[in-house]
Amino acid sequence: MRRIPVVCPFCGIGCRFYIKVVDDTVVDVKAYKGESVNRGSLCPKGLTSTEYLTSPSRLRYPLKKTETGFKPITWKEALREITERLIEFKKKYGADVVGFVSSARCTNEENYVFQKLARLYGTNNIDNCSRLCHASSMVGLTRTLGLGVQSSPFEEILRTNVVLIWGCNPAETHPVLMKYVLKAREHGARIIVVDPRRTRTAQLADIHLQLHPGTDVALANSLMNVIINKRLYNTEFIRERTTGFNDLSIIVDEYPPHVVEKITGVKAEKISEAARMFATAGRGVVIWGVGATQHAYGTDVATALSNLALICGYIGREGTGIYPLSGQNNVQGACDMGALPDFLPGYIRVTDNNGRGRIAKLWGVESLPAEPGLTLIELLKASSRGRIKALYIVGKNLVVSSPDTHMAKDALRRLEFLVVQDIFLTETAELADIVLPAAAWAEKEGSYTSSERRVQWSFKACDPPGEAKPDWQIITMIARGIGLGAYFQYSSVEDITWEITKAVPQYRGITPGRLKENLSGIYWPCPSENHPGTKRLYEKEFPTNNGRATLIPVKYRPPAEAPDEEYPFILLTVRIVGQYHTMAVTKYSQSLMKRWGEPYVEINTNDAIRLGIKNEDYVLVETRRGMIKAKAKVTSKIPSGVVAVPIHWGVNVLTSAILDPHSKTPGLKTCTCKIRKA
Ligand SMILES: Nc1nc2c(c(=O)[nH]1)N[C@H]1C(S)=C(S)[C@@H](COP(=O)(O)OP(=O)(O)OC[C@H]3O[C@@H](n4cnc5c(=O)[nH]c(N)nc54)[C@H](O)[C@@H]3O)O[C@H]1N2
Ligand SMILES: Nc1nc2c(c(=O)[nH]1)N[C@H]1C(S)=C(S)[C@@H](COP(=O)(O)OP(=O)(O)OC[C@H]3O[C@@H](n4cnc5c(=O)[nH]c(N)nc54)[C@H](O)[C@@H]3O)O[C@H]1N2
Ligand code: SF4
Ligand SMILES: [Mo]
């Protein structure tokens, strides 16, 4: 029997566990009890994560689309076709007609080589799934703090006095983080939850601010209004470590609780009580999720939450911190590696001549493209218009996860050439000209970076099925095929990890050797090989020009779609603990499907009575873009006028592709709808 240490392939908490292998067969999963984030516990997804690996539906051979469907082809044929087409597009139209979509499910090394391929091919048209969740936080926090990441490790939560959880339901989505919150509560910390629904997380709160969807900026400003008017803020911190307090005070003055009660539906006294509880705790943390960020004003919400933490001085000290949770297991790493249209590895702007020059020199080329590329949804929109002619998508089920499925499918169908590299024949792969079979997490090795900035090595436990290969190998083969072989001389994953230590300043001391020895991982920034890594950021200064954080006031703007006579309800798209995103992999897990196998629509009890809908009746939910059918779950946990649908069963036929102007994140979280009995 062998016990192979791996990192969970699902969420950004980054749990560590062992896979037990007997005679090359995976037999069991066992949580790692050492100094990992999970210290012995795992959620249902982690526990069942090996089930889908052996599914007979796994992709085994490269596939080519023919008139009669897909036919298996050899790797040689697949590579020839892809590389010939890539060369042809560049010659005929220039490199910017091709887009690259990277995977937050792949390793740092794979994201690194993929963005390198895009850039050496000649374009910055590369993005990853952070665009759908995390980008608003990245942009909002970069403008306030200088860097868009989680400031502190989760263990800080154990030393805090108040936990503010905003637009996030960790009881379902980050169960291992929830353990930290519950422990903090045992030690006496207070919990405040901001969510339109009475979620499993909200049920544990001391105060639940059940706001109308989309009114977050008004509520955050009102909390600050109380904190400033009652002088509950941290004068010293504001004076020494921030700028912009006066401007902020002027704007939040427009949001007294009695005014904001009318916008948010939250009672004025409750706003004041929460503000007092938060600001007077001495130590506090703010955790937020995609209920805060997936809106056309998501960047403003992230900015407002950053302001709120700053005026209380809840950054850079023990028991404090901001936690813009990164969703997928390696979305943090994908961004760190520069799988972004505006940033090179290590958050160097593509427009920064010096920084770009340094990377070009490291890669041994004269120059690199200096124009920012298109973001994820912009790539789709440009495909619809014929401006993007080919896409190479790695590990992303874009057809199902993007807003407005009809638009997304149409965009992909219009492409002249689509390559999808995945572990299953997903809805997106079905539209491809060539499908490439990838090895899954346990079948390859490499590093992943969790929401904590904790970089961990995952070892190989078993072989991939058929002729599937690790993503980094496939990407390297394609690079060689288009004449970039000299820049992709990697014979192992470690060769790439070493290059990352040179390209990404924050990873300088994070060598493959250290990663393999330290199963508990290393936190970036880690400037040298003897540096232990940095758990808590901003203790002395912020990475801004003047070392201070900037308080940037933001104003409330009403949601893009307001309920009207035709579409009187607000639809929320939410997650449940036992399913993951588009179900691309979880639908092959029998244990999860048995318990969490069916979609539903949460509807308020009074609304249901009014519409003649009983629990478990089939209902139709319709928006301006599409319709779904599912069973009703009649409940008082959701307010009247709001319905909620789990995202996992193709919810995006309903949603809209409206984008936040700053982060280009789509408003996936809410839109208006109507509902009736089927
Ligand atoms: N089981 C499971 N876990 C996951 C995932 C999964 O698919 N399944 N995905 C992972 C990924 S990639 C991510 S990004 C995270 C996301 O993790 P979460 O952010 O926790 O995910 P959601 O359930 O989508 O949204 C959180 C909450 O936002 C609330 N909400 C909706 N609209 C609003 C609003 O206008 N304002 C406020 N304040 N709240 C609102 C919803 O009611 C919901 O309870 O989860 C990760 N973990
Ligand atoms: N309406 C609505 N829509 C949403 C959201 C929402 O809250 N509401 N949430 C958004 C968010 S936060 C996110 S993160 C996205 C998620 O969107 P996606 O990333 O598209 O969702 P997944 O289903 O996780 O797809 C990941 C794909 O990677 C493949 N894969 C897994 N491992 C590997 C590997 O090692 N190699 C390769 N090549 N492929 C692999 C899987 O088979 C799957 O096809 O959804 C977004 N969509
Ligand atoms: S909490 Fe996240 S990382 Fe941990 S076991 Fe569950 S899905 Fe995996
Ligand atoms: Mo996400």
Question: Helices, strands, pairings?
Answer:
Layout (H helix, E strand, L loop, with lengths): L1 E6 L8 E7 L2 E7 L12 H4 L15 E4 L2 E4 L2 H19 L4 E4 L6 H14 L4 E2 L7 H11 L16 E5 L3 H4 L1 H12 L3 E5 L12 E3 L6 H14 L5 H7 E2 L1 H8 L4 H8 L3 H12 L4 E5 L1 H4 L4 H14 L9 E4 L6 H6 L6 E2 L3 E2 L3 H11 L12 H9 L5 E5 L3 H4 L3 H10 L2 E6 L11 E4 L8 E4 L4 E5 L12 H14 L8 H11 L8 H6 L4 E2 L25 E2 L18 E6 L15 H6 L4 E5 H7 L6 E5 L4 E9 L6 E5 L23 E8 L1
Parallel strand pairs: 6-7, 6-16, 8-9, 8-12, 9-10, 11-22, 12-13, 16-17, 17-18, 23-27, 24-26
Antiparallel strand pairs: 1-2, 2-3, 4-5, 4-18, 14-15, 19-20, 20-21, 23-28, 24-27, 25-26, 25-28
The protein binds ligand MGD (2 copies), iron/sulfur cluster (SF4) and molybdenum atom.
The site of one ligand MGD has 33 residues, from helix 5, helix 12 and strand 23.
Q: What's the gist of this structure?
A:
This protein is of the alpha/beta class. The chain contains 23 helices and 28 strands.
Write out key terms for the chains shown.
binds molybdenum atom, 678 residues, alpha/beta, single chain, six-stranded mixed barrel, seven-stranded mixed sheet, binds ligand MGD, binds iron/sulfur cluster, 28 strands
